[in-house]
Structures are given as C-alpha cells and as structure tokens.
Amino acid sequence: MIGGAAMLVIDENNNIILTRGDTATLDIELTNESGEPYEMTANDRIIFSVRRLYGVGDVLIEKTSSTPVIELSTIDTKNLSFGSYKYDIYLYNSLTHNLDTFIADRTFTIGSEVHEFNE
Amino acid sequence: MNSMSSVKNRGTLHGVVRSGGGGGTSDYDELQNRPKINNKIVTGAQSGHYYDLAEINDVIIKELNPEIQAGVNYPRLEHIKDKDDNIYKLTYNEFTGGLSGLVPSVLQPSGKVLTDSGNWVNMSFSYTYDLLWDYERDNNNVIDYGSYTHNLQHSIDDYKYLIIKFSSTRNDTTSARWNQCTECYIDVYVLTHGYRPYRLTYTSFGDRASAIWFDVVNEHNQVRIECEDTNVNGMTQIYGIK
Lengths: 119, 242
Prior knowledge:
The structure holds 2 protein chains of 2 kinds. Chain A has one helix spanning 74-77; strands spanning 8-10, 16-19, 24-31, 44-53, 56-65, 69-72, 83-93, 99-111. By secondary structure, chain A is mostly beta strands. The radius of gyration of chain A is 15 Å and the shape is globular. In chain A, 46% of the residues are buried. Chain B contains 4 helices and 15 strands. The model of chain B is unreliable at 1-6, 19-126, 168-182, 201-209 and 229-234 (pLDDT under 50).
C-alpha cells in the first residue's frame, strides 16, 4: 500500500493483510445460500483460526465470538513473524453440533510495523 | 497509552453459511468442484501443483465415505500399529474440549478404531505394507540430515497407496510431536495421473515447514523424491499398500 496506510487490507477473496501488532475489527457479513442475511442464533459461535499452514500445525490465533465480529488485539499478532499464514472461519452450533467452515484456506499476512508498541 | 479511538482498523469479510447454522461447509462445495480423478476429489492448488498434508487425508476421507461432510482439517485420520508387526488399523482424531466445552478446538485421539461394520465412523481396514524407502543414512548407518533427491527404484504400479512417514527433528523427538501429522497417504492413481509434481508440506515445529516432492520419472512409474528444508530432512519412510 502506498502512503503507509496498509494497517488492515481485506481483498475480495477474504485474504487479509494486517500490520503486526495492530488492533483490528473484522466484521463478517453472513448470508445464506439464497443470498439473504444470516442472523446468528444464540447457539451459534464464530471461530477464527490462524495457522502457519492450512489445516496443519499449531493454531497461532484463535478467536471465538457470539456475534459476527472478530476483534484482534495487539497481543494476537505482535509476536508473530512477518509473512503469510492461513486462516479459516467456521460457524459452530452448540445445539446441533453442526460445523460450517464458511471461509477456508485464505491468506492472513502479517506486515511489518515501523513503530514499536509497548504496553 | 495514547487514545486511538478515532483511528481503527476495520474491514469486512463475506461468508455464505448453510441454513440452520452449519449444515455443511460452504467451501466444501468449492472442493467438490475441483478436479476429480477416478471419482476422487483432487484437492490442492492446481496452479501450484501441490497438495497439503491435511488435504491428502481428506482425499482418503472422501474415499472412505463420499457422503461425509468433513472440513478440510476435521477430522483427521491416523493409523496405528497393531500388535501384529505388519498390520495397521485406522483411527481418527476429533476435536474435543474448547471454550466452555462447546467449541471444538483441540485435536485429540478419539480412541475409536474404525471397523468395517457399517458406517464410516466404525469402519477400518487392515493392510500389509512393503517398505519402499527407508531413512537416508550415512556411511555409519546413522540417519542422515539434509535435503536430498533420490529415485525410488520400485515401480509403484503394484500399490494402491503410499504411506509417507515424516519423522521429527533430532532434538525434538517427543512422542507427542512424533505422532503429530507424521503420516499421510498418497493415492498412487492420483500421483501417476494427477497434477505433478506432488508436494506434501509438513510442519509441527513452530513456524518451520518442510516439504517432500514426488514426481513420476518414467513409464515404469518410478518416483523421484525430493526432500527440501533441513528441519525434517532425510527422516522419511515410504510404505506401499496393495
């Protein structure tokens, strides 16, 4: 990104670029197969997981939310190496135990920061 | 701490869910549309000609039961050695635990052995194998570390599957890591008829990743093996299952 504004970039394929250590809010627009908005139920949870390679190895970031919003904090990425990771997001229903991976095998790139943030 | 309330990273992701909150996987549909060979789903990035470890296991999952709606990393098959030295049984791992006991997050052995009594959950098969490739060793018969290329002298035509066993690093051979993602299956038909070369990626050591490449080198279906990266190195065994 030109101008140093690439703190958070999401492309049309849901690939994410985030500056290391930045906070970020990821809003998730869920639709059903008919294209209508999907309203989460009380039993729905959204789980966001980041790994180095897709489906293999340790989960480096995992966020669970009962709303279609994922909040990333500084601690989530500040210790990760720069480079590309893989993420997925699935919907889990605790009542039916159904699991729906609605975003799979997308890239989560950690970009370099020019500052150092110490809490 | 500075107030940053007026500046916030915010973006929107888009996802399509099935009605009822998780009736399957949306990207699973995309997987279904990927090329099929002999009615097997061939996953992996076509443009890059590679297959990841979890995806290979998915090919097997689909073959065992095409109806199962497994996520690309869930559940994960694992085979265990039986008392008989030459017999293996398939088990599978599943996610348990997690936040409030509701969210699956930890891959743990289920302890369930798959049998062929009916549905996939209880299905298993025993098989015999031939060791086609053992660890690369040096002149002192010590397992050799370092990337290498080698042509497998066996024709793989006689085998239905190859089992690839990656082993841990020299200083990290705890049983937990030893058992983590150390084995995968290759369908020989896919290997000889699919996209090539055939890359398996493997990682269980933090952010380190290693890969092994397979390529069919001649009409006898002999295979060239290339191990890259120096983290897993030559610690690879290859078995053939008929």
